[in-house]
Design brief:
The chain is an alpha/beta fold and 104 residues long. The protein contains three helices and four strands, in the order βαβαβαβ. It is globular. The chain starts with a strand and ends in a 6-residue tail after the last strand.
Length: 104
Amino acid sequence: MIKLFISQPMRGKTDEEILAVREKAIASAKRNFKDGEVEVLDSFFTDHTDESNPLEFLARSINLLGKADVVYFAKGWEDARGCRIEHQCAIDYGINVIEDYTED
C-alpha cells in the first residue's frame, strides 16, 4: 500500500474545489502505481477558524508528509508558500514526487 500525501493550493478555494483536486490526485496516483492501492494521508483539515495560525496547520501537514511514500503536487503549487515548503521537504528528505497536472 502506497501512502499518498497531496499538496495543493487552498487559499481562496471552496471545500468543493479542494476536494475535486484531491480526487484527481488520487486517480493520478493510482495510475502511477501498478497495484493501484493508495492510502491517502488526509491533509485537508476542517478544524480551522479565522483566528487559526497557518503555521500550525503547516506543521501538521509536514508531520503527515513524513509518513508519506509519495507526494502529489497539484497544479499551482509553486505559487503557494505552504506547498513550496512541502516540496522542499519532500525533495530534501527523499520522498517520491508526482507533478501530474492532467485534467481528467
